């Protein structure tokens, strides 16, 4: 590469995670020349430090928990997990932090990969500083898509850097099991990582500033997971803030708001996310570095007809699957505008990310699992809908009893009593992650309750909870 080169493309994508990959896939499928810029590993956060390694770590934990609830099997799985085998399983699913396969996929769709740090240096212009320090200028005829994702946000505690705290990256990639681990936070990363490391042999202390776990889900979800973590041996403390953290020799010391000292070998902060937009040149186009980027439903940034922000950076739904959904919409919208096709921007149209508003699904892979889509009861009421919540104890479903002795779980559907459609659904219990897509279809499709009676669940499966929910709604 010469010191400075200029290359012109139809589309330039900043970031080669799942979101950037899907934007590139859609624009290339439409025949648009596409460049992808990546400063780390192709495949992004999800592939190497989030979804894939965390679920690879969690799967043996959940499988053992399920097996311990099955007669004739529980006695065979009472011993500890083989931590080294679990970590090796994790390494396999991260491709040992090598991105050859992902690079090969980009090449197969005909997208050009530019390794290095990309920054906007003006409208439709991205300057890439390569590993050797040389610069390459990429210009976009039609669109630049910012798909740089988010990073862990650390609190402003004095001296925190010296403590070398874990974030989600260290928690999913650690080569060893800490004897004692403090987890700060009560969201998805905190609960999943507390589940993993407690099961692998750590003594976990979970410190939650709020009233409970998973505050964006129905309250019973966090309650059931907190109970399970305590039963597994974790120390779960709600209403607990941390005012200072220090590392004394090899020991981390966290001091709570009440002055209590808690010691551990490592400390994980799972206290939120921040956009990776602080050093991508936003100031060159009149935007604030480090800010979330507001977009319309075609994922185009407000006030910039050539700039798109897809995935975490727009702060609509910080979930990999939702970012990939947005990427498919954005890629199609970019292609439609580039070729002069009619933009189908009405709700649920081909170029409108409508699900971001009303039908976002999520699964928390703890034991028990929590899965939800759409609005919680509180959110539905806050949005002005006239709704009624219908609850069912999952243990009353035959399939749940067959799945596990002593099955504990709960289901809720939030019904709009004016439109007779579902505004939200939540399941908590072993194995419920595979139920959520049926709920997603019901919510996204605005399927009337009267039609759901004709969606017959197979017997005996946990899915029969749908029939129990409908019966409860009818009989209320």
UniProtKB/TrEMBL annotation:
Its cofactor is FAD. Its EC number is 1.8.1.4. FAD binds at residues 55, 118, 148-150, 312. Residues 360-466 form the Pyridine nucleotide-disulphide oxidoreductase dimerisation domain. GO terms for biological process: 2-oxoglutarate metabolic process. GO terms for molecular function: dihydrolipoyl dehydrogenase (NADH) activity; flavin adenine dinucleotide binding. Disulfide bonds join 46-51. NAD(+) binds at residues 185-192, 272. Coiled coil: none annotated. Keywords: FAD, Flavoprotein, NAD, Nucleotide-binding, Oxidoreductase. Residues 9-321 form the FAD/NAD(P)-binding domain. Binds 1 FAD per subunit. Belongs to the class-I pyridine nucleotide-disulfide oxidoreductase family. This is Dihydrolipoamide dehydrogenase.
